[in-house]
Amino acid sequence: MSFNAEVGKQIRMYRKKRGFSIEELADRIYKSKSVISKYELGQSNIDIATLYEISRALSVDVRNLLMYQDIDSKNESNHRFGIFQEDRLYLYLAERHKKKTTLHRGLIAIFAEENGDSQLTATLYLGLERNFAFEKCKSVYHGHLDCTPYNASFYLTNPLEPSEHVGIFSRISSGNRSLALGLYVSYEILSNTPIATNVIISLRPLAETDLLVSSLITEREEFSILKAGNVFRGKEFVDESDLVR
């Protein structure tokens, strides 16, 4: 997919999440509705000045409009290890409410700063359909990734709701070559109570089976550890051969 089309998808996604119509965005940057439509469809080039105007109108960093790249190339970096050397990863977590379990999908895009800085920028698109179309996500978070040979830590904020934060803490294990297990830490929306749940990060989409869901659900043994040591520990190992498509 072309660069213009990818940027257009980002513009459309943020416009909709802001609740702006095409006409409202057009008025804010003094362009016509047809021009905005062409931008969103990737049918017209966007100059840098206009891109900055759009980012200001949508109250997002201009880099957020350039975040996603449709690539799968491996990034060999001294600051990236395990599956986190990849530029795109798939995330799964499960939520249980009144005995009903809901599987949530996410897509993580990771970027190294072009100036050679060791800082790694990350975007999480959460609440996706099975096709992982990022522009249809329910929530989006931006931030950075800290990576060592032993673990990876994401620190993310919703640019549309700056008080909404997410942390993802994952262990890098030689036992899982295409998966990483960890904890997803955030706040429950209704009560604003801190929560933590198991998360699986994968190199590729996983088979959405009962086994995947059960791998994400907290087991009785984990409650025992919590009760004994007052510490909630994420899962340490799952058999990836049973989960990968």
Description:
This protein has helices at 3-18, 22-28, 33-40, 48-58, 210-216, 220-229; strands at 88-97, 100-112, 120-126, 139-147, 151-158, 161-171, 179-187, 194-202. It has an eight-stranded antiparallel β-barrel. The protein has six helices and eight strands. It starts with a helix and ends in a 16-residue tail after the last helix. Helix 2 packs across helix 3. The radius of gyration is 19 Å and the shape is elongated. The longest helix has 16 residues, at 3-18. It is α+β, with helices and mostly antiparallel strands. The chain has two domains: 3-66, 434 Repressor (Amino-terminal Domain), CATH 1.10.260.40; 82-242, Beta Barrel (Lipocalin). Helices cover 24% and strands 31% of the residues.
CATH-assigned fold name of the largest domain:
Lipocalin
The CATH architecture term of the largest domain is Beta Barrel
Radius of gyration: 19 Å
Enumerate the strands of the largest sheet in spatial order, edge to edge or round the barrel: 1-2-3-4-5-6-7-8
Number of domains: 2
User: Topology as H/E string?
Assistant: HHHHEEEEEEEEHH
Write down the overall mean pLDDT: 83
Strand content: 25-35%
Number of helical elements: 6
- Which CATH class of the largest domain is shown? Mainly Beta
From the N-terminal CA to the C-terminal CA, the straight-line distance is: 25 Å
Contiguous runs where pLDDT drops below 50 for at least 5 residues: 70-76
Would you identify the CATH H-level superfamily of the largest domain? Quinohemoprotein amine dehydrogenase alpha subunit, domain 2
Describe the main β-sheet briefly: 8 strands, antiparallel, barrel
Q: Shape, please? A: elongated
| Helix content estimate | 10-25%
Number of strands: 8
Give the helix/strand class: alpha+beta
